[in-house]
Amino acid sequence: MQASLRLLHKSFCSWHHPPSTAEKLSRLASRGHLNEAVRLLRSNPSRDFPQLPAEIYLSLIRSCIKFKAFSQGREIHKHMVNAGFERSLVLLNNIMIMYSKFGDFNETLKVFEGMSERNLFSWTVMIGAFSKNGNAQKSLELYGKMVSSGVKADSFVYPLVLKSCGAVKDLRRGQRLHGEVLRTGLLGDVVVMNSLIDMYMKCEMVGDSGKIFDEIGDRDVFTWTTMIVGYMQKCRPLEGLELFKEMLNSQVRPSSATLAGVLPLFSDLGCLELAKQIHGLAAVTGFEYEKQVGTALVDMYANCGGLCFGRLIFYRIKEKDVSCWNTMIKSYVQVNLSDEAINLLKFMQLDGIHPEKSTWSCFFPQSTRGKFSIHRFLKLIKCLEHAEVKPAVFPVTLLDQMCENIENVKQVKELHLFFKRSGGIADSSVGSSLIRMYSKFAELEPAQEIFNSLGVKELDSWNSILACYAHNGYANKALEIFNEMRKTRIEPSVLSWNTLIAGFVKVGDFEAALETFSDMKWANQRPNLECYNLVLPIIESSTSSMMGKQLHGILLRSEGKMNKFLCTAFINMYGSCGNASYAIKLFDSMDCKDLVSWNSIISCLMKNGFLSETSRIFHEMGVAGVEGNTITWTTLVAGYARHGLVDECLKHFRELQLKGLKPNSITIASILPACAQSATLTHGKSIHGYILRNGIISEDLFVSNALIDMYIKCGFLEYSEQVFRRLHQKDIISWNTAIQGYVIHGRARDAQSLFNQMLDEGFEPDPITFAGVLSACSQAGMVNEGWEHFNNMDLKYGLIPTGKHYACMVDLLSRAGLFEDAKNFIFQMSLQPTASLWGALLSACKMHINVEMAELAAGHLLELQPENAENYMILSDIYAKARRWNDFNGINRMMEDHGVRKLPSFTWIEIGNSVYSFTSENLLNQNIKEKVDTMLLLLKETMIMVREGYVSEVTVMK
C-alpha cells in the first residue's frame, strides 16, 4: 500500500513539475531527434534562453557527429555562440571534430584559433583537418608549432603527419619523424608502422619500406595492403604480386582495398584467362560486387577483351558511385559502342548520379596505345547531339588534347559551332581553348571575337589571347593586351610574362624582351626555367656591354646570387663584348663550376686574345678535377689557329686524340685554316689523311670546304681540285672557295668557266661569288664580261654591290688602261670610295706609269691610311719610273716626316715538318743555311738525273 502511494506521489509531482529544457535536450540528443532539439532552441530568443550546462551542448554536438547532422550541428553551434556558453576544452574539441568530419575546414580552423588553451586532442584534430583538406605543408607546419609548444605526439598524431610527409615527398622530415617514433617506443604500434611504410613508398624509398615491413611481426591487412599497393604504384608489379601470394598463404585475409590494388596489374597485362582467375579469387573473398573491387573488375575485363563479363559485374554492384559509372561508360567508348555509352549516361542520371568532369573525360579518352583522334572526337560529339545530350563541363585535359591534335581551321570552326550550340562557349576554359586553336592557324579575328564574347575573363583567357598575338608576330598588340589585363586588376602570371617576352624575341626586338624581363623582376614575379631559357640566348648573343651590365645588375639586386646557368650566360656575353676582365671576375665568384662554365671562360679568353690566361685557366680546370671534353679542346685548337700559333694548335689537336676523345667536324675545320695560314702542307696532308680514315669528308661540307681552302693557300691547286670534284654535294661556299682558288693562282679563265658551271647546276651566286668572278675578269682583262657580271648583280639576282665589288671594277678598268672610265665610275658610284678601291687604282697606275691618276689615288689613300708604307712605296716607284726624281725624293722625305718605315719583305721555306721565315735583313742562321744548301744540292742532282733519263719516284695524292 505504501509503495503504491509513493508511486502516485511521484507521478503527481512529475505532472506538476515538467522536465527542464536541459533534460528535454539531453533526451532528444540521446535519441537522435536533432530537428526537435533545434526547434526547441529556436523557440526562445538566445538572450532569454537559460544558459545550459556544457554537458548538454556536448551531448548535442556528439549526437550531430554520430547521426551526421551537419546543418543541425551548425545551428546548435550558432545558438551556443549567441547565448554564451561555458567554453570547456572537451566541448570545443568536439565542435572541431564535427566541422572536420563535415568537411568545413574554415570553421574548424576558426574554432581552433579561438581556443585559449589546447591539448593533444585539439592539435590532432586540426592537423588531421589540414591533411584531409589537402594542405599537407600546413599540416607539417602545425605539427612543428605543436612540438614547440611542449605537446608530445602520440600514436594518433604520427600517422597524420607521416601521411603529410608522403604527400609532399618530404623525405628528410619523414626520416626525422621515424627517429622520434624510435625514441618514443612506438615501433610496436602497427598503425604507426603502416604509416611509415606508406611514407617511404611515396618518397620513392621502396627499400626502406621493405625493411620496415620485414620488422613488423604481427602484420594486419593494412600492412600487407600498403606494401602491395606501394609496389604497384611504383611500377614494381611482380614484387607486388609475389607479396600478394605471400599474403594469401598467411593468416591475413585480403580486404577489398587489397584486391582493388592488385587488379590494375591484371588489367595492364590484358590477358583474359588471368583476369578470370583473379576474378575467381575476388568471388571467393566475397568482394566481387563491392563498389571498389567491382569497379576494378569492370575496368580489368574492358582492357582484357571481356566486356560482356564486365557488364554482368557492373549491373550487380551495390551502390554504384560516379567512378563505377564512369568505368563502364569508358569501357563502351573504348570499343566504339558510343550509343551504349550515351544510353548508360542517361541511366546514370535517372539513378540520381550527376555526371562530373571525369565522366565527360570517359567519352573522349586519350588512348594510351595511340594518339588522341580529333576525328573520333568530332564523331562522338555528333552522337551526343543526336541523343540530345549536352555535356555540362569539359575537362581541361580534354581541351588540351584537342588543342594539341587539331589538324586544320575547318575542324576548329566545327568545334566552335558545337560549343555554341551546347552552351559550352560560355565556359572560360572552353573559350580559352578555342582561342588557342585559332591561334595555331593564325586566325586572329575569330580568336578576338571569342575573347570579346566571354562574360568573365579569367587569367587563362587573357593568357590565351596574349599568346595568340605574341606567337603570330604581333608583339606590340600583345603588349597592349598585357597592359589592358593589368588595368582590369588581373595579376599577370609567370606564363603571361614569358609569353610577352617570347613575342618580342620572335620579332627580333631583343631590347624590348630584356626590358620586359626587367619589369617582371620589379613586379616581384619570380622567373621560372622557361623564362631564363628565353632570356639567356639574348644575353649570350648581346654585343652591347652596357645593356649586359644593366641586366647583370638587375639580376644581382633581385636574386642576390645568380645560378650557374645565368653566370655562364653572362660570361659568354662579356666575352662577345670584349670585357674579359668582367668575365673572369664573374667566373671566380662562382661557387659551383661545371664543365660548361669552364668551357665558356676558356672560349671568352681565347676570343679576346688572352692566350697565357687561357693556358692558366685550362691548367686550373685539370687541378679542379674537371676533365675537358671535345668542345674544350676544339676551343683551344680554334683559338690558337685564329691567333696564328700553328704549333700550339697542332699540339693540342694531338693531345685531344691522346685523351681518347674524337675530334668533330668543327675541330677539323678549325685546324685546317692554321695549316693554310702557315702554308704548311705536311700538316695539312696529315689532317686530310685523318679525315679520310674517319669518313668525315663524306658527311660534312664544312670540313670539305676548309680542306679545299687549305690546299689552295698552300699552293697546291690540283689537290683542291680533286677534293672539289669528289664532293657528292656542294654548297655555295664550295663553289666560291674553288672560284677564289683559281683567281689566287692566276687561272682567271678557269674561274669564269667554273662560275658558268655553277649556274648550270642551279646554284644562285651570292656577293662573294661575284667578288671572285670580277677579280678573275680583272686578271684576264675581260672588261665586257666584267661589266655584264656587275650589272647582273642587281638586275638579275637582286644583289646590291658593295665596296669590294666597286674596287674590283676599278681594278678591272684601270688594269685595262681605261683610266677615264675608272675615274668617272668612281665619281658616279653611290658608295663612299674605300682605301681598297683607291689602292686598286694606284696599283694599276704603277703598271701603266700614269702619274696624274696615281697622284689622285695616292692623295685619297694617304688621307685614309697615313701610316701605310706600301702606298708611299708604290707612288715613289711610279715617280722613279717616270724619272721625276724631285717628287721621288719628296715622297721619301714625307715618309720620314710622318715616321713611316718600310716593312721588310719576308719569305718562308718548309724543311721537314717546320716552316722557317726570313728577310733580307734577317738572314738564315747557320743551321738552317746548311739545310737549305743540302736541299739545293739534292735538287740539282735530281735535275741532272732527269736530264740524263732517270725518273725519280714522286708520290702524288690520289
Q: Report the average pLDDT across residues.
A: 82
- In spatial order, strands of the major sheet run 1-2
Low-pLDDT parts are: 7-16, 950-958
Which percent bin holds the helix content? Answer: over 70%
| Structural Rg | 44 Å
Quote the beta fraction: under 5%
What's the total number of strands? 2
Structural class: mainly alpha
The rough form would be described as: elongated
How many angstroms separate the termini?
A: 142 Å
Number of helices: 54
Largest sheet: 2 strands, antiparallel
Write the layout of secondary structure elements.
Elements: H1 2-16, H2 21-31, H3 34-42, H4 54-66, H5 70-83, H6 89-101, H7 105-113, H8 120-132, H9 136-148, H10 157-168, H11 171-184, H12 190-202, H13 206-215, H14 221-233, H15 237-249, H16 256-269, H17 272-285, H18 291-303, H19 307-316, H20 322-334, H21 338-350, H22 357-363, H23 374-386, H24 396-405, H25 409-422, H26 428-440, H27 444-453, H28 459-470, H29 475-487, H30 494-506, H31 510-522, H32 529-541, H33 545-559, H34 564-577, H35 580-589, H36 595-607, H37 611-623, H38 630-642, H39 646-658, H40 665-678, H41 681-694, H42 701-713, H43 717-725, H44 732-744, H45 748-760, H46 767-780, H47 783-795, H48 803-815, H49 819-828, H50 835-848, H51 851-864, H52 869-881, H53 885-898, E1 906-911, E2 914-919, H54 926-947
